[in-house]
From TrEMBL:
It holds the Pfam family GGACT. Residues 4-109 form the Gamma-glutamylcyclotransferase AIG2-like domain. SUPFAM superfamilies: Gamma-glutamyl cyclotransferase-like (SSF110857). Transmembrane segments: none annotated. Gene3D superfamilies: Gamma-glutamyl cyclotransferase-like (3.10.490.10). This is Gamma-glutamylcyclotransferase family protein. Belongs to the gamma-glutamylcyclotransferase family. It comes from Vibrio porteresiae DSM 19223. It comes from the Bacteria. InterPro entries: AIG2-like_dom, GGACT, GGCT-like, GGCT-like_sf.
Protein backbone atom coordinates (compact mmCIF):
# COMPACT_ATOMS: atom_id res chain seq x y z
CA UNK A 1 0.00 0.00 0.00
CA UNK A 2 1.07 3.56 -0.71
CA UNK A 3 0.32 6.73 1.25
CA UNK A 4 -0.77 9.57 -1.03
CA UNK A 5 -1.23 13.16 0.14
CA UNK A 6 -4.04 14.95 -1.70
CA UNK A 7 -4.49 18.70 -1.44
CA UNK A 8 -6.88 19.58 -4.27
CA UNK A 9 -9.52 17.93 -6.42
CA UNK A 10 -8.74 14.41 -5.14
CA UNK A 11 -9.75 15.30 -1.55
CA UNK A 12 -12.85 13.76 -0.06
CA UNK A 13 -15.90 15.70 -1.25
CA UNK A 14 -14.03 17.41 -4.12
CA UNK A 15 -14.50 17.11 -7.94
CA UNK A 16 -12.08 14.23 -8.70
CA UNK A 17 -12.64 12.25 -5.51
CA UNK A 18 -14.30 9.46 -7.53
CA UNK A 19 -10.82 8.59 -8.88
CA UNK A 20 -9.49 8.36 -5.31
CA UNK A 21 -10.50 4.86 -4.29
CA UNK A 22 -8.12 4.80 -1.35
CA UNK A 23 -8.85 4.50 2.36
CA UNK A 24 -8.53 7.69 4.36
CA UNK A 25 -5.60 7.67 6.75
CA UNK A 26 -6.71 9.22 10.05
CA UNK A 27 -5.74 12.82 10.70
CA UNK A 28 -5.53 16.20 9.04
CA UNK A 29 -2.18 16.90 7.46
CA UNK A 30 -0.03 19.68 6.13
CA UNK A 31 3.23 19.61 4.28
CA UNK A 32 6.27 19.82 6.53
CA UNK A 33 7.78 22.36 4.16
CA UNK A 34 6.18 25.32 2.44
CA UNK A 35 5.19 25.12 -1.24
CA UNK A 36 3.47 27.59 -3.58
CA UNK A 37 -0.12 26.63 -4.47
CA UNK A 38 -1.97 28.29 -7.35
CA UNK A 39 -5.14 27.97 -9.40
CA UNK A 40 -3.94 27.90 -12.99
CA UNK A 41 -5.40 28.23 -16.49
CA UNK A 42 -8.93 28.16 -17.85
CA UNK A 43 -9.62 25.10 -15.72
CA UNK A 44 -8.53 26.71 -12.42
CA UNK A 45 -6.49 23.58 -11.72
CA UNK A 46 -4.73 23.50 -8.34
CA UNK A 47 -0.96 23.38 -8.88
CA UNK A 48 1.37 22.63 -6.01
CA UNK A 49 4.70 23.96 -7.29
CA UNK A 50 7.72 21.87 -6.36
CA UNK A 51 9.64 24.86 -5.05
CA UNK A 52 10.23 23.89 -1.43
CA UNK A 53 10.59 26.71 1.08
CA UNK A 54 8.28 29.18 -0.73
CA UNK A 55 4.55 29.69 -0.29
CA UNK A 56 2.70 28.05 2.58
CA UNK A 57 2.37 24.72 4.29
CA UNK A 58 -0.24 23.00 2.15
CA UNK A 59 -3.23 21.39 3.90
CA UNK A 60 -4.60 18.04 2.79
CA UNK A 61 -5.61 14.47 3.41
CA UNK A 62 -3.66 11.22 3.24
CA UNK A 63 -5.04 8.06 1.65
CA UNK A 64 -3.79 4.49 1.59
CA UNK A 65 -3.98 3.24 -2.00
CA UNK A 66 -3.03 0.04 -3.75
CA UNK A 67 -0.99 -0.16 -6.96
CA UNK A 68 -4.09 -0.06 -9.19
CA UNK A 69 -5.50 3.08 -7.54
CA UNK A 70 -2.06 4.72 -7.69
CA UNK A 71 -1.97 4.01 -11.46
CA UNK A 72 -5.44 5.57 -11.84
CA UNK A 73 -4.29 8.67 -9.96
CA UNK A 74 -1.15 8.80 -12.11
CA UNK A 75 -3.34 8.73 -15.23
CA UNK A 76 -5.59 11.52 -13.93
CA UNK A 77 -2.53 13.62 -13.08
CA UNK A 78 -0.90 12.75 -16.45
CA UNK A 79 2.49 12.08 -14.86
CA UNK A 80 4.02 10.88 -18.15
CA UNK A 81 2.94 13.96 -20.13
CA UNK A 82 5.44 16.79 -20.54
CA UNK A 83 2.96 19.24 -18.99
CA UNK A 84 1.59 16.79 -16.41
CA UNK A 85 2.11 16.59 -12.69
CA UNK A 86 5.03 14.71 -11.18
CA UNK A 87 4.54 12.14 -8.45
CA UNK A 88 7.10 12.96 -5.79
CA UNK A 89 7.84 11.95 -2.23
CA UNK A 90 7.54 14.53 0.51
CA UNK A 91 6.89 14.68 4.23
CA UNK A 92 3.60 15.69 5.81
CA UNK A 93 2.78 16.36 9.45
CA UNK A 94 -0.36 15.38 11.34
CA UNK A 95 -1.60 18.74 12.61
CA UNK A 96 -2.93 17.30 15.88
CA UNK A 97 -0.14 14.88 16.86
CA UNK A 98 2.93 16.23 15.07
CA UNK A 99 3.55 12.76 13.55
CA UNK A 100 5.59 13.02 10.35
CA UNK A 101 4.99 10.60 7.51
CA UNK A 102 6.52 10.25 4.07
CA UNK A 103 3.96 10.22 1.29
CA UNK A 104 3.54 10.53 -2.44
CA UNK A 105 2.09 13.81 -3.73
CA UNK A 106 1.44 15.32 -7.15
CA UNK A 107 3.15 18.59 -7.96
CA UNK A 108 4.35 20.65 -10.89
CA UNK A 109 7.98 21.53 -11.57
CA UNK A 110 8.68 25.25 -11.25
CA UNK A 111 9.49 25.58 -14.96
CA UNK A 112 5.87 24.65 -15.86
CA UNK A 113 4.72 27.80 -14.08
CA UNK A 114 6.58 30.04 -16.53
CA UNK A 115 4.07 31.28 -19.09
CA UNK A 116 1.13 29.66 -17.28
CA UNK A 117 -1.89 31.83 -16.53
CA UNK A 118 -2.09 32.05 -12.74
CA UNK A 119 -5.66 32.83 -11.76
CA UNK A 120 -5.16 32.96 -8.00
CA UNK A 121 -2.65 32.13 -5.28
CA UNK A 122 -4.05 29.76 -2.66
CA UNK A 123 -2.65 30.38 0.84
CA UNK A 124 -2.18 26.70 1.65
CA UNK A 125 -5.74 25.37 1.85
CA UNK A 126 -7.67 24.44 -1.32
CA UNK A 127 -11.31 24.82 -0.28
CA UNK A 128 -14.72 23.96 -1.73
CA UNK A 129 -14.96 27.61 -2.86
CA UNK A 130 -11.80 27.08 -4.93
CA UNK A 131 -13.11 23.80 -6.30
CA UNK A 132 -16.30 25.54 -7.49
CA UNK A 133 -14.10 27.33 -10.04
CA UNK A 134 -12.51 24.07 -11.28
CA UNK A 135 -13.37 22.70 -14.73
CA UNK A 136 -12.58 19.13 -15.80
CA UNK A 137 -10.70 18.48 -19.03
CA UNK A 138 -13.96 17.25 -20.59
CA UNK A 139 -15.78 20.46 -19.59
CA UNK A 140 -13.31 22.69 -21.45
CA UNK A 141 -12.69 20.37 -24.44
Amino acid sequence: MHKVFVFGTLKEGFPNFATNKGVRYPGDFQTKNRYPLYLVGDRYSPWLILNRGYGHQVQGQVFLVNDDVLRQMDMLERIHAADGYRRVELTVVDKATGEEIDVFAYGKPLDQLYGARIQQEVPGDYTLAHSALYRSRQAVA
